[in-house]
Design goal:
mainly beta, Immunoglobulin-like, 2 domains, five-stranded antiparallel β-sheet, 20 strands, elongated, disordered N terminus
Length: 264
């Protein structure tokens, strides 16, 4: 997952109302960036359906862009994403503004295709002039987090995110994912996001139980099984009835459960 982007999101609990044809439908406003010096304000009006096929709908949106910055915007391009209630991306379009002087307003239409029921919008700058790049806040990307079994509570850097499967937003740097579920051991997964990473990656974590040992590998994966032997060069772990051999250098940490000694 590569390409650094900054997102500016607008959650609309009743976003589907945008699809109606009421004459007095209010505009939906997104300001970029969300914090710091404001540069540009977008107002998205009524969605006008121009074509449809099965569950796929094409819309034209009346759009107003206003330069709220102190300088002229030579050219700026955004990708406009549409998500459903589960944060699954169901559509996208592009918004481009050129030669917009301070305080100047431009009116145009934005075309977007949608498959499903819209719930939220996300405005992502895909092309920024050099003067605007320092104003962009740190990038965040979307990562799908899952667990085996599903339904585990996931925390990112100590902040609760919900239960798996879950789409999370994380910035550049190192993060710790914590998984917990009744009847299973609490587990941790290290996640590192690079400056050129892009949305679309996924993490899957297998929860262990108190009946098995836990072996954490250096690549971040965690094994749940029965440790049978350890030597100077390798460890043998029985997982699902099959003995698997791992080089000592692959292993970062081993947690052993307490077991009764075998009866003679």
């Amino acid at each position: 997952m590569r390409v650094m982007k900054r997102t500016c999101s607008l959650t609309l609990a009743l976003f589907f109302a945008l699809l109606c044809s009421a004459k007095d439908q209010p505009a939906q406003v997104i300001i970029w960036p969300e914090s710091g010096t404001q540069v540009i304000k977008f107002s998205f009006g009524k969605f006008k359906e121009v074509a449809s096929l099965a569950n796929r709908h094409e819309y034209a949106i009346d759009t107003i862009a206003e330069n709220t910055w102190s300088k002229k915007i030579p050219s700026i391009t955004f990708t406009l994403y549409v998500y459903d209630k589960s944060k699954v991306r169901i559509g996208e379009g592009y918004v481009n503004v050129n030669d917009l002087a301070p305080g100047q307003v431009a009116k145009f239409q934005t075309n977007i295709g949608v498959s499903g029921t819209p719930y939220s919008l996300e405005l992502v700058p895909s092309s920024l002039p050099a003067d605007l790049r320092p104003l962009a806040p740190p990038a965040k990307i979307s990562v799908t987090v899952n667990s085996v079994p599903q339904g585990a509570l996931v925390n990112v850097d100590g902040v609760e995110q919900g239960t798996t499967p879950k789409l999370i937003q994380v910035g550049v740097g190192k993060h710790t994912l914590e998984f917990s579920k009744e009847g299973f051991n609490t587990g941790h997964f290290p996640l590192e996001v690079g400056p050129n990473d892009a949305s679309g990656g996924s993490v899957s974590y297998e929860l262990g139980t108190s009946a098995h040992d836990t072996i954490e590998l250096r690549d971040g994966s965690v094994l749940s099984g029965d440790l049978e032997s350890v030597s100077a060069t390798e460890a043998v772990v029985r997982i699902g009835g099959t003995a698997q051999h791992y080089s000592r250098n692959q292993i970062k940490r081993i947690s052993l459960v307490e077991r009764d000694a075998p009866q003679p």
